[in-house]
Amino acid sequence: MLIAYYYNMSSNQNNNLNSKTTSKNINIGDEAPDFELLDTNQEVHRLSANKEGLTILAFFPAAGSPVCTIEMCSFRDTLNSLKKENINILGISVDSPFANKVFAEHHKLNFPVLSDYNREVIEQYNVVMPSLGKLKDFKVAKRSIFVVNNNNHKVVYKWVTDNPLIEPNYKEIKTIIS
User: Fold this and answer.
1) Which among 32, 57, 63, 68 is annotated as catalytic?
2) Could you confirm whether 73 is annotated as catalytic?
3) Angle at the Cα of 76 (from 71 to 80), degrees rounded to 5?
């Protein structure tokens, strides 16, 4: 299996990060931190509840923004082929369950979109973007992908970017999960 690690560094990557955070870089081979988050119907999803196959954690900055919409719709359009391979997709943003519901319904997303409204999971995974555009100190998720093996809960793929305008390499992700 091809295992890849991509990380786009920026010169101001650590500016304005909360110094109280206990996050660490999660790397390939590390155990994925477990979490419980609410979906668009306010139902709890726990990462460790997935026992077989793989789970794609797709962190995105803002529901309804142009690149986030393209990314989530790209996962939606490939989900049918992924379901046959026992692949789960979880979209994760800091938006409220209510905003995520409008976003998911409008774009007919066929996978759970989870709300990390208190920003604990983006801190656990160390994917905090300290500001979104001109919204200084408005912490959101960096666009990032983690693929987790549900049998042992280990990370088998990681991709993180500091640039919210860059999409993940979907072909590369499909190669990893094949």
Assistant:
1) 68
2) no
3) 145
